[in-house]
Amino acid sequence: MADIDDQGVKRMEDIARIVGVSKSTVSRALKNSSQISEKTKAKIRKIAFEHNYRLSGASWQWQESNMPAITVVLPTGPGRRGRISEPFTMEMVGCIADELLDRNHNMLLTKLPLENQDTTKTLLSIGPSEGVIIIGQRKEHYRIRQIARDIPNLIVWGARLDDQNYCTVGSDNVEGGYMATKHLLRLGRQNIAYFGDLTAAEPRHRYMGYKKALEDTGFTVDPDLVVETPYDQLSAFAEARSWLRLGFKFDAIFASSDVVAMSAIAAMRESGISVPDDVAVVGYDDIPMAEYYQPPLTTVRQNLMEGSSMLVDKLLRMAEGNRVRSAVMPCELIIRQSCGSSK
Known about the structure:
By secondary structure, the protein is of the alpha/beta class.
């Protein structure tokens, strides 16, 4: 082993020189690659730890308890606050963390505005990671395509799109929107409003299912009953309140998320509209509080435990050099009292 100078370890080349291996071997060892022997990994880790080596200028430092890690990204947009606090996101992050722990991996959690041009550089500087999981495409499909060119070990929880160059795992959002709307139609509701985003991939697919269910039953979409609503609770409540003041006739709402559905119910309660007597409501996600809301919320359930397992499994197989396919999971209609029917 080469002598260590007083300057310590500054670059990956320094570790390679000290251990007597190539730079690429050091890189693979620090990422816990199965291609490197445990004996060589141990030598490289020892030098990195003893000399406080920092990878790619990031604040991460090698630690004795090191486990391989996966980076989990919560996309944010301009003015977007605290997406990690949203119930669906919190549950998804928890499921992914549990799955990674079961597979002896750490999670590097970060919030990033994907529209920034330096997002790829930021992701690469966070720390040693075997790959990246992005929770939700939002409106950034084009940017994710660009990021995927530089970070091949990348997987996204979201909708499968025709021109994607990255792997996705997600529920069948079109079918989810369809079954929610068909349920309302079977209950005799005819003026069904849609509350949600029309531009982000997943809610757009849910709207497509809503539209198809109406058309298959002989109805057409009434533009006055399509309410473009943000996902956060306060904005959704304000939008619902403003729309209710316009006085359009409606007897049901399909909302693209449970948070939006609950916000709409709160706005209707303020206006003296009874749920489900006057208006039936179906949400989407089946977040934990949906069952305990008043009235308990009928919703479309996404299987987050299965989805998290698939995300992690596919990403780790990518990191091992295997090819993987995108997956679309079935969803389930959970019927509760917000529709006035248990069937």
